[in-house]
Amino acid sequence: MTRAPASAVPATPETTASDAAETAAQRRERAQTMYAHLRELYPDACCELDFAGPYQLLVATVLSAQATDVGVNKVTPVLFARFPDPASLAAADRAEVEEIIRPTGFFRNKAASIQGIAAALVADHAGEVPARQDDLVRLPGVGRKTANVVLGHAFGIPGITADTHVIRLTQRMGWTAQTTPEAIESDLNELFDEAEWTRLSDTVIWHGRRRCHAKKPACGVCPVAAWCPSYGTGPIEPEVAAALVRGPV
User: Fold this and answer.
1) pLDDT digits (tens, 9 = 90+) for 144-172
2) Cβ distance 3 to 217 under 8 Å?
3) Cα distance between residue 114 and residue 118, in whole Å
4) Is 16 inside a domain boundary?
5) Which of these, 56, 138, 158, 212, has the minimum number of CB atoms within 10 Å of its CB?
6) Residue 163 among the catalytic residues
C-alpha cells in the first residue's frame, strides 16, 4: 500500500481517478489507503452507544434512529434499570416506556418497536437475541443495518453498517456509486477484508461525525484529501476547516 508523503498536495476532483477511469483493483487499493489513514486518525473508533449485552445494544440501536447516540445514552440507563430484559420490556406499560424514551424523538413509534421486538424475542427466541442475521431481520422493525450493528458489536460477527454516514462518505470518497444500503454494503464487502467490516463502519462513522459533515466537510484538515474525488466540497483553508471539526478524535 503506497503512502502519500506528509507534504502531498491534496488532489482535486479533476486529478483524482474517476469512476470511469479507475479499475476495480485501483479502487480497492485507493480505498484501503484511505482507510489506513482514517484508522490512524481514529484508532479508538467504536460504537458510541452505551450497552451491556445484545439486548441493550439492539434496543439502543432502534432508539438511535433520528437521534444522537449521546441522547440515547442519557435515557437507556433508566430504561434498562426499569426493564432489564426482553420479558419485562414486553410486559411494560406502553405509556411508561414512551415517557422514558421521549427525549429520543418519535417516542410512540419507538416504544411500539422496542416492545414488539421484546415480545418477539420472548415468543420466538426464549428471551435471547439471536446471533444470526436472518433471525434478526425477522424481528419487527429490524433491518440489515441494525442487525449488523448488533452482530458486529455484541457477537463479534463482522458486518457493514450502512447508516447515513457510511452511505454519504463512501459515495463521497468514491468507494461506491451505488445508492441503496444493500448495494453499498455489497460494494464495501468487495473492497475490504471481512475482518475489517465492523471496524471500518465505526471508523467511517466517526469521520462523518467529526470531519466529513453532510453540508460542510472539513476538507482542509482531512487526512484522506489526496485520494478523495470530492475534495473541495467543503473549505480547503486549514484554519477555516479546523473550526468545523467536532468532538474528540
Assistant:
1) 999 999 999 999 999 999 999 999 999 99
2) no
3) 6
4) no
5) 138
6) yes
